[in-house]
């Protein structure tokens, strides 16, 4: 039986998104208060259920036995990224208005790109988040 409060798959796989935060509580509050998620685990790591997915938030750190050459850190330059969270919505104008009212700061208002309307915001550590609506 699946547990709705934790990202534990009942079968197959389940995709979560991991973000490195300088302040885990601050980032969890952003994903809860601005994006409307539910914090299901506090501390390090914190877990936030966001719609039908989860965001796992933890501090960075040096290599471990299972990733011996990897250092986890917040984005060193918010103007460069190699991956980002992509959130698909039914009504981008409503989400843009709601999240802006909750303190979300978007890079631009939603832009019509033909096949989709999209805009971007950042979490407190600079992780890029795309919000898009397919048209």
From TrEMBL:
Q: Which GO terms describe its molecular function?
A: metal ion binding; methylmalonyl-CoA epimerase activity
Which keywords belong to this entry? Answer: Metal-binding
**GO terms (BP aspect):** L-methylmalonyl-CoA metabolic process
The answer to keyword Cell membrane applying to this record is no
Protein known as: Glyoxalase
Species of origin = Micromonospora globispora
Top-level taxon of the source organism:
Bacteria
Annotated ranges, domain VOC: 12-134
Question: InterPro entries annotated for this entry?
Answer: Glyas_Bleomycin-R_OHBP_Dase (IPR029068), Glyas_Fos-R_dOase_dom (IPR004360), MMCE/EMCE_epimerase (IPR051785), VOC_core (IPR037523)
